[in-house]
């Protein structure tokens, strides 16, 4: 398998766009736009306001930078993230000072948790007014310091080109992440000299990309001597553009592979060595393989709590090889027997050579017994679901059919909750850059603007947002942005009339006391029964049409394929499909929060019996 064409390697820079040795006199605002052009930014998602307004005037004249006017700054931030995840380039969003900037905090935190390269540009009050509690002043640098790789407050217009160049470099290299550039209004208005190329000086920022040869050799030795290894693959492999190297190593060794929620598509779901996704709602084979492994070969993953469950009971028999671009992640949650700091692509390339050298020396792992056990678990505990009551739609069936009919070349963006987990389970991901979701932050409202950003960056791709009715009501106003800017995404609303994942927890842990999770009822209705047709609040079909989209509804299983195909044939405007689904469906398998992965339940009240001495 070759690396997906739309996912360039982390750290690639669009140097071809940069003008050579340009010196001109202009305003700081003009310098900002010229700098964005020079670093190759082609799309900015934003909304103007007083402090950033000077930048919007020269932006109007740019022939290289497309500005997409969003309806809310949160939409701009998630759109920048979706653009970055789908294209592998740095996403850009822009907002004004005060509330405009603070509305970007959630998507910045989201990008930070998921290591997504974005640059957020905000206007600030004038230099002399900073610190005086001026109108629409907020210390956005201070607010975002814990959730950015770096941030800048610019008060000198001469600094703008250098800062923009550095911001894009920092965002895209090493472990990717968000960078904030806050520019005072008077710096945008003042006259300055624009110089390009710029000289950057980042003496404290030197990401290690080349792994240490000794550590690579030690890791290879562990891999060929292990009896029960697992390649534990995280999102860092996708961000490094290392999926081709991953497949080479996996097929060379024959070791099983698990891919985290952020790594779906890094290794084909259809590959016989793939065990699925680990974690709270991961597959039984993937979760159990980690628990019973004697070696975790960890690549670009961070041992987060959703994967490990109760940490002190996680993978109790396993030695750990941990490779990551960020040295702070190694040993943070689980001590590493062989730590490797480096870019995942270079790590994997070197490992392939080192493992082959071990093979040539007559050292080759024998995983036959391990695979016999794994294959039995795959056969006995496949991911599945209970059928819906007669005549009703199952949410899993809806998502599975979307994946089958739309295919593996599309880009899928999910919100957060049950529909997110069902999407990860029932859509087959075969390629990197095709799965976008809010993994670390779990941000409701992510799907629609992220899909918008992905479609803006990859207009040739089919882009579907799989959203819940709760998530959809947080950011659906960006459908107006899509309709007005020729961004024809498809949105599948999995409408069960409730905050589904919270309701599932209330069912399992709160004696079915559904406090404030029913979305379609008011204080005079207990919400047990869904509303009759014609009384839906809101009516998503009418809402979609009011925002310039095509609105469709599907309530019967026999109509499912026809409605999906109808949506696929509409490409001149966004499409919203309101799928009315069975409200009691739950996500299984499940490891309850705070418990050991050994307590995984295959279905409600059903714990797998592995029947071996490691159980």
TrEMBL record:
Entry's cofactor comment: Binds 1 Mg(2+) ion per subunit.
Gene3D superfamilies: 3.40.50.970, TPP-binding domain
Listed Pfam families: TPP_enzyme_C, TPP_enzyme_M, TPP_enzyme_N
Keyword presence, Transferase: yes
Keyword Metal-binding: yes
Enzyme Commission number(s): 2.2.1.6
InterPro entries, per the entry: Acetolactate_synth_lsu, AHAS_TPP, DHS-like_NAD/FAD-binding_dom, THDP-binding, Thiamin_PyroP_enz_cen_dom, Thiamin_PyroP_enz_TPP-bd_dom, TPP-bd_CS, TPP_enz
PROSITE patterns in alphabetical order: TPP_ENZYMES (PS00187)
Family: Belongs to the TPP enzyme family.
Protein name: Acetolactate synthase
Organism: Kitasatospora misakiensis
